[in-house]
Every structure is written in structure tokens, then in C-alpha cells.
Amino acid sequence: MELIRPLLSTSIILLSVCVASAGELNVEITGLKNGRGNVVAFLYSRKFQGKFPRALKENSNELEPGVDRASVKSSEGSVVVTFTSVAAGTYAVSILHDENCTGRAEMNWTGKIPKEGTGLSNNPNIGLFNPPDFEESSFKVSGSETSIKIEAKYYSAYKAQTSDCH
Prior knowledge:
Layout: H1 4-21, E1 22-32, E2 38-45, E3 67-73, E4 77-87, E5 89-98, E6 118-120, H2 134-137, E7 139-141, E8 145-151
Parallel strand pairs: 1-8
Antiparallel strand pairs: 1-4, 2-3, 2-5, 5-6, 5-7
């Protein structure tokens, strides 16, 4: 019994440290041009090995490894998307104003320019042929709550045919 008590105490301390290091990440998305559809945020961890900011597997709505997703109903102006139980570390976020609720960005005829609103953490300039990398969009999460702000940017006059997401 004497041997079990110190082990139990150590386990409780380690568990409380692990739980305390997971926090909430609030992503405020501003500049939304309408309330159609949903706003989707993709959270990329250092484990992500894909081509940033591509969150989904090719021809699929399945997430790449190292990416998490959260969404809320869109609202003209701004919304907040919250990720819970985010471990301390370095992350990046991309957002999509998914006006037609497909779960994917609609692209123009070139396949390079999104028709729907998009954005990245740290709001870097987004080039047509070389988007920012993970490092340029990364930020630190620590403590119980971290908040960031991303401005949605629109590159075309796209109007979704439907906004019925349910």
C-alpha cells in the first residue's frame, strides 16, 4: 500500500497537468458578406504533413491527418468558431465561408481562385500561385483560452444557389 500511494499521487498530478494544458481556441471570423451557409474553420497541428492550406483529402470531404474541423451557421459580419480541448502548441487555421454547404471551397474555372470567402490565421497576403505556408500562418496556443481573428476575403462575385445546409 505504501508503494501504491506515491504512484497514485504522481498519476493524479500528471493527469491534472495534461488536462490543464488543453484549452479553448476561439476564432473570430470578420468580413462575412452574408449569412448564407456555414463558416468552417480548419485547425492544423504540427502533425499535418499535407500541402497547407489544403485540409481535405483529394476528391473527398475526409480530413487530412493533423487537421481538425469546426463550423457554425454563417451570419453577415462576423462569427466565432470554437475548438475545445486544444493542447498547447503551434497551430494554423484556415477558414471557408461555405455558402452552399458542400464542405469544400468552390473554385473558379482556373481551379486556383476560390469563389467563396476564405482566410488564414495571421491574415497574410494570399498569392494566386503560392499561398502562405504553415509557418507564415502559425501561432501559439497556451493556457486555458486563446483567441485569434481572421478576415474573410472574397475574390469573385459568386452567389451560392442554395443556403439550405440541413
